[in-house]
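Lab notebook, bench 4. Still working through the backlog of constructs that have no structural model yet. Next entry is a single chain of 682 residues. Request: give me the structure tokens for it.
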Amino acid sequence: MGFSGKPLVILSVVLLLSGCVGRQTLTGEPFRLTGPALESALASVRTEAVLVDGRLRLGFITDNERLWFNVTSLERQFDGVVAVHVSELDVAQRVRRPRAGAQPVEVMDQRQFSEVLRDVLGFYTPLGPNEGLLLQLNRGALVSWRNAEGTLLLTPWDQLPASVSVDERMNDRALAVRVVSLLREMLMHEPETAPRHLVFTLQQHYPGGVGWIYADVAAAEIYYILSPFEGDEIAEPALRVSLKTLNRVVFRSHVLTFVRNPVTTLRRLAGHGQDVVVSMLRRNPVPADEILPLNDGPGMDLHAWERRLDLRTRTRRYPGKLDFLVGGEAFFPDFIERARAAESDISIRSYIFDNDEYAVSLANFLRTRSEDVRVRVMMDDLGSMLAGLKAPPGGYRPGFQPPSDIASYLSRGSSVKARRVGNPWLTGDHAKLTLIDRDLAYVGGMNYGEEYRYHWQDLMVRVEGRVVWRLRKEFEKSWSHAGPGGDLAYLMQSLRLPGIEPFAAENDADMVPVRVLLTRTGRQEILRAQLDAIRRAESYIHIITPYFTDPDIINALIEARARGVDVRVVLPGEGNHSLMNSAHLFTANRFLDNQIRVFIYPGMTHVKAAIYDGWASFGSANFDRLSFKVNQEINLATSDPETVSRLDNKVFSPHFAQSIELTEPLEWTWEDYAASLLSFPF
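Model written out:
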């Protein structure tokens, strides 16, 4: 498909250039239109624009109505070349018709903008046939490429022919810079005729997306004006939701799971009981007589520490290569590129495989790939269902109907094998592990859905080397356990899988030693390792986590700071669970009282990572009871200096730089206190 006809519809996705979050996350509560006249006007073909005292005003003209609104800037970002504004129509206040002296602004339609965009993409798309440029956009990803005849084509990434290779990428910000630069060149070469101010009317309406683009060419500024239409939350009837939840919680998670996995189900119940008893007998920590100044020593002996972990967790280190992919814009294109090149296998284990538009596009991609390679997807039953009941931050596009059961959607009419993991006693499979062929894996905190691609900060680690075999071994056991064979199949798979040779410096010089740590029934390797690391740290402890409620870890950190360890914690400023948000108020205040430095990240960070005197642990486990004692989790750990330094530079340093350090206690209410008490069992 080229740049005519149907591609103009595809270009309406490209025109969501902003890459910024939608109005809902910029301004709080979503806006709801109430005036039918306004809706009718915004749907009109005729749009006018003027500048009044340097401020843009848009008019919507019909036969019966003339509505004018000011454009208000919400956010401004400057990259040294072009200033990008996210703006909105001030629809709450209708303004008068512009006076005669107002400066008119030329308004162009989508077809005219597509010509500008075609010129930009034609310049930056590789010239060779079947070579593409990946456009990472706010609501999706497209590939600009040329066919054998040299025709420039634009294709959604999940529909890209397998013969096309994608070696270059451009995000929405970079694309915006190119567009404005092209318009400025036109102005320089034709100063008398080229427009200095332009408004492009886009095909509407995408909830939280861009309805219009205003370019102040001379000033090198571009404004993305968000459509005020609220996204439709396609909610299921309450009765259907209740029955679906009852089916998963009672029948699937307890009746069916107990039949398949009687041993595991009973062990998890026993583990719950044991943890309750231990919690009741836990002694309150004795306050330190004094808090010592910060130590200036080298930290703990990492060689001795690794030997202790061998005994403490009964785990081994395996050779591996680790690359840190920070943010959805780093992970998902990398995953798609590697999965497109897969030769034999794509295996996914995720807590959530959502049913929003981005997740469905991933599902479609996997369905297509299943025609050529084995594709397996394993998801937590209750976690995926609950996530699917809630619309993403930007809402749904009009006409999109999310599938009611993403597992069935994946497997229906395709060769994808999808399995749901049951939730006995409300436990969950919170691990995030993706495997491609025999030599590549991803481990981290990202699920498959729109929040993780566009809205939250998170981390996935691309893993290569023999440690991938260890991760595959874990996947195969979990896959068997989630199938009809249950506990018996898990046992048989455990006996069948071969052993893996651990790391040896003389044989694995090009790799680093990597340890796999788990939380699962009867094993608390992640908690034991990190709790022990806190108690043995001598120099510093840095932690990033979205959920921090585990009392043992909190008390151990307070004790570490009292003996002179520099303890710093990053928490999200915008969480996705109100109970945890309230709990963080008290956790943060308690840390401040004990001279632990607390940083609040602007927005939602879903990263789970920690560094203790040069030993790092990162993966799916939060710092709460669920991740440390109840759910299934996977973390990686290493003390390789170069790898830990890269983690620090790519993850911790930016988090500290972008966060606000607390200097005084946070205010709280009795409602927060009550909510925090409810959160600590989790």
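Notes after review: Confidence is low (pLDDT under 50) at residues 1-44, 204-208, 229-239. The chain has three domains: 7-226, 238-283+328-456+467-496, 514-679. Flag for follow-up if needed.
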